[in-house]
Design brief:
heterodimer; A: mainly alpha; 5 helical Cullin repeat like; Tetracycline Repressor, domain 2; Methane Monooxygenase Hydroxylase, Chain G, domain 1; 30 helices; B: alpha/beta; Rossmann fold; 7 helices; 23% strand; GTPase activity (chain B)
């Protein structure tokens, strides 16, 4: 090569290019060839020449090689020609062998095809088996799911669904049936939800229907526990706690109908059996439903629904019947429903996790408590029967104690009970007003007669009357008071008992109860009994007999008040040394009543006097008196004498005051007769007749119709009349006018105005007589004198006016 | 003071304790009834004005205690009575038997010309009756006086009883006045005398 190169005498550049062409790949020839053209303008011609030279060199070398190997080639061809013959022989042999093989192998081929078919089948079978082994568990689980759904084992069904979704479906998700299953699961879940919710609704309806029984049982337990000892209470609490324990892992798979587990008959037979709410109601629907919703991740929906429904039920339970206040059973049903409701809530609070919370139950209870208090306040105000109010108090206390035992605060209920207690006492006061009225209505207002020791002791046992003198008297004898006194005393004690009943179980101290009782008793005495007494005394048709006896009765009732104080002290078991902040004010009641009765006696007597005075039939122009006192006045005097004669049991001071009042009233009435503006003329004869009547009054006054008057005290009632009449009958004007204003005047009590009025009535008489007496000197002189005295009296009257 | 009535008649109620004297008076004067028995002590009275033949009559009716211990006091009022009602209780035979004693008391203490009347009270309690109406009537006939069964409770015959007695008193009074008139005859002086006599008679009657 080197030699060829030297002989051609090529350009070094073209040498390099040819080297590259020979060494590089075909793909990279382009750039190399382009470099040829990029070079000198005629470069490619020279390049072609060099290229042809390279070609001829290579051909020469090839020729040399062929010459060198020529002999070997010929030998080889000769051998090949020999082989040809051998080959032709071999070909015949192989064809024949092949033909024989073909004939012999035909059966083998047939068998082989069978084998191939079998192997394909086996492979297919294997594949199918593998696939099926993946699918079968899914189908089994789905079948199980269906079975669980049919058996209502929803929780297990949910578990199965979860396994299907998480474990089995990924293996077979490409299959159609699997898609169908996957699409069906949400529907099944919704079905489970709906069924569980339906169960829950049934449960809610059930506990609503059975709230009464639940509440009744709980309240009975609360009542029973009050009679147990402390240790027994502890024992019950432990038992109760044990019953409240729930093992969530053992939630029953079977769903029982939500019914009371104990029939009413069983209840009656086992009245003393202590039952828990779980013994009465099947709570499993709540537990199952809660778990199902938890598993489904929809716990909040369940909680919201449950709470919402229970709030609705609470409002229903808290809505009383419109006529609840009419019977104690109405209240009882109301209370038992409420207790039943909250006992269930408390149970669920303790056995579930978060379904209800303490905050939720407290909120619910506060709402309920406000409603309950409003309801009780409204309905109790309709009660007019104290026994019903008392029953309401007892029920309320049991109600409060029951719920307090479950942890609900009930202080506001006890506050309400104090309001109801005031109303209870008001109701009692009304009832006792009726009682007192009946007692007064039935009294015969005469001293109680007793004919033997037995009867005497009966009265003494009812009323604490102590009188050694009466005790020594022989039978038959009489107590000074009438039948109403022991009856009232007994009824006041009954009132105290009734008032005390309300305070039982209200958790108040004896001192507080004692004070409350005294306040109530004070109201009874100072308001109720006082009103009844005053109404009795002011009855239009009450007679002197009744009034006199009332005075005696109130005296003895007043003395008995200290025994009532002792009675209250004993009944509340407080120490005798305890200072009472409240004392009985009954004393003032009886004093006031006595004063009213006394006043009424004076009024009645004066009315009788007025009736007599209206019968007066004076002939005011008579010329000569009858010579005897007027008939009406004698009847009047005799009547008064009889009155004071028969009412010997009237207290001395009252009798004296009554007598004085009567005399003063009579005197005033007689004076009014003389001064009556409708009476125009009075004759001296009439004055003299009138004087006879006044003399009778004075005789009555001086006869001491009532013992105890000193000197002429009673006669002073008629002194004005006496001096006036003396002045006119004696015609002592010179003395009167001369001594007027002097303390020692005989006619000190004669009012000039009065004298003037009466004198003018007599002057009129004289004027009439004047016609006929023109010629009688004495009459003329008398007329002049009257005129003179009239003028002088008039000046006195005017003088008095100036001074005034 | 001007009189507000024409005549004053004084009546008296007597009889055993508890027969209903006060209740009869209460019914007549107040038209009311009180079921509770309250024993009258001593003497009491009520006034009611009625009209008879155009005249205003004031009836002053004295109610007496039936108990023995008040006999002295109540007897003092017999003399002034112009009419007396003897009351018994038809349910209490003893009170009926005692009417004879009460009549004897009247003859002893009352004016000889007093008008009388027997009343059988409580006739509403027929189921407890012990004295038949016939026996009451016979007793009254025997003494030549009027008889009525009454009931203060039901107000049966109460008005009738008092009006009957008042009318009888009025009749008797009118008869006396007529007798007095017929006795007089002649001139003005006699007329004056008659007036004086009438006035005097009237006043005596009141007394």
């Amino acid at each position: 090569m080197a030699e060829n190169s030297e002989s051609l005498g090529t350009v070094p550049e073209h040498e390099r290019i040819l080297q590259e062409i020979e060494s590089t790949d075909t793909a990279c020839v382009g750039p190399t060839l382009r470099s040829v053209y990029d070079d000198q303008p005629n470069a490619h011609k020279k390049f072609m020449e060099k290229l042809d030279a390279c070609i001829r060199n290579h051909d020469k070398e090839i020729e040399k090689m062929c010459n060198f190997h020529h002999q070997g080639f010929v030998d080889a061809i000769t051998e090949l020609l020999k082989v040809r013959t051998d080959a032709e022989k071999l070909k015949v042999q192989v064809t024949d062998t092949n033909r024989r093989f073909q004939d012999a192998g035909k059966e083998v081929i047939v068998h082989t095809e069978d084998i191939i078919r079998c192997r394909i089948q086996q492979r297919n079978i294997t594949t199918v088996v593998e696939k099926l082994q993946l699918c079968l568990p899914v189908l089994e689980m789905y079948s199980k799911l269906k079975e669980q759904m049919s058996a209502k084992r929803y929780y297990s069904a949910l578990k199965t669904m979860e396994q299907l979704e998480n474990v089995y479906f990924p293996w077979v998700s490409q299959y159609r049936f699997c898609q169908l299953m996957i699409e069906n699961l949400p529907k099944l879940r919704e079905d489970i939800k709906e069924i569980s919710m339906s169960d829950l609704k049934d449960f809610l309806e059930s506990i609503r229907k059975h709230s009464d029984k639940i509440g009744e049982t709980a309240m009975k337990q609360a009542q029973h526990q009050k009679t147990f000892s402390v240790s027994l209470q502890k024992q019950n609490k432990m038992k109760f706690g044990k019953n409240m324990y729930i093992n969530r892992d053992r939630i029953p798979e079977e769903r029982n109908e939500t019914v009371l587990k104990h029939s009413l008959e069983e209840e009656d037979e086992n009245e003393e059996e202590i039952l828990t709410v779980q013994d009465l109601v099947d709570f499993s629907p709540v537990y199952r439903c809660l778990h199902i919703y938890s598993v489904l991740g929809d716990e909040e929906t369940f909680e919201n629904y449950y709470r919402k429904q229970r709030k609705k039920q609470a409002r229903l339970v808290l809505q009383p019947q419109s006529n609840m206040h009419e019977t104690v059973d109405g209240y009882r049903r109301y209370f038992t429903q409420i207790v039943g409701f909250f006992v269930v809530e408390d149970h669920i609070l303790h056995v579930t996790q978060g379904l209800v919370t303490r905050a939720y139950t407290d909120e619910l209870w506060n709402m309920a408590l406000s409603k309950i208090i409003a309801v009780l306040r409204a309905h109790s105000s309709y009660c007019t029967d104290p026994d019903l109010v008392l029953e309401l108090k007892n029920l309320t206390v049991i109600f409060a104690d029951t719920l307090q035992g479950y942890g609900f605060p009930v202080n506001r209920l006890f506050d309400l009970l104090f309001e109801i207690r005031d109303q209870y006492n008001e109701t009692l006061l009304k009832k006792w007003a009726g009682v007192f009225r009946d007692i007064f209505e039935e009294d015969n207002y005469s001293p109680i007669p007793v004919v033997n020791e037995e009867e005497y002791k009966i009265v003494i046992s009812k009323f604490p009357f102590q009188d050694p003198d009466l005790e020594k008297q022989s039978f038959p004898k009489k107590f000074p008071m009438s039948q109403s006194v022991p009856h009232i005393y007994i009824q006041v004690k009954e009132f105290i008992y009734a008032s005390l009943k309300f305070s039982e179980s209200l958790h108040r101290s004896s001192t507080e109860i004692d004070d409350m009782l005294r306040k109530s008793t004070n109201l009874l005495l100072t308001r109720t009994l006082s009103s009844c007494l005053l109404n009795l005394i002011r009855k239009p048709h009450i007679g002197l007999t009744e009034l006199v006896q009332i005075i005696i009765n109130t005296t003895h009732l007043e003395q008995a008040c200290k025994y009532l104080e002792d009675f209250i002290t004993n009944i509340t078991n407080i120490s005798q040394e305890t200072v009472h902040t409240t004392r009985l004010y009954g004393l003032s009641t009886f004093k006031d009543a006595r004063h009213a009765a006394e006043g009424e006696i004076y009024t009645k007597l004066n009315q009788k006097i007025d009736e007599f005075v209206q019968l007066a039939d004076y002939d005011w122009t008579m010329s000569e008196p009858d010579g005897r006192a007027s008939g009406y006045l004698m009847d009047l005097i005799n009547f008064l004498r009889s009155i004071f004669q028969v009412f010997t049991h009237l207290p001395g001071k009252v009798a004296q005051t009554a007598c004085m009042s009567a005399c003063q009233h009579l005197s005033t009435s007689l004076m009014q007769m003389l001064l009556d503006s409708e009476l125009k003329q009075i004759s001296m004869g009439a004055v003299q007749q009138f004087n006879l009547d006044v003399i009778q009054c004075e005789l009555f006054a001086s006869s001491e119709p009532v013992p105890g008057f000193q000197g002429d005290t009673l006669q002073l009632a008629f002194i004005d009349l006496r001096q006036l009449l003396d002045l006119f009958m004696v015609w002592d004007w010179s003395t009167y006018l001369a001594d007027y204003g002097q303390p020692a005047s005989k006619y000190l009590r004669v009012n000039p105005n009065t004298a003037l009025t009466l004198l003018e009535k007599m002057k009129d008489t004289s004027k009439k007589n004047n016609i006929f007496a023109q010629f009688r000197k004495n009459d003329r002189d008398k007329q002049k004198l009257i005129e003179t005295v009239v003028k002088q009296l008039r000046s006195l009257v005017n003088g008095m006016s100036q001074h005034m | 003071m001007a009189k507000t009535y024409d005549y004053l008649f004084k009546l008296l109620l007597i009889g055993d304790s508890g027969v209903g004297k006060t209740c009869l008076l209460f019914r007549f004067s107040e038209d009311a009834f009180n079921t509770t028995f309250i024993s009258t002590i001593g003497i009491d009275f009520k006034i009611r004005t009625i009209e008879l033949d155009g005249k205003k009559i004031k009836l002053q009716i004295w109610d007496t205690a039936g108990q023995e211990r008040f006999r002295t006091i109540t007897t003092a009022y017999y003399r002034g009575a112009m009419g007396i009602m003897l009351v018994y209780d038809i349910t209490n035979e003893k009170s009926f038997d005692n009417i004879k004693n009460w009549i004897r008391n009247i003859e002893e203490h009352a004016s000889s010309d007093v008008e009388r009347m027997i009343l059988g009270n409580k006739c509403d309690m027929n189921d407890k009756r012990q004295v038949s109406k016939e026996r009451g009537e016979k007793l009254a006939i025997d003494y030549g006086i009027k008889f009525l069964e009454t009931s203060a409770k039901s107000s049966a015959n109460v008005e009738e009883a008092f009006f009957t007695l008042a009318r009888d008193i009025m009749t008797k009074l009118n008869r006396k006045m007529n007798d007095s008139n017929s006795a007089g005859a002649g001139g003005p002086v006699k007329i004056t005398e008659n007036r004086s006599k009438k006035t005097s008679f009237f006043r005596c009657s009141l007394l």
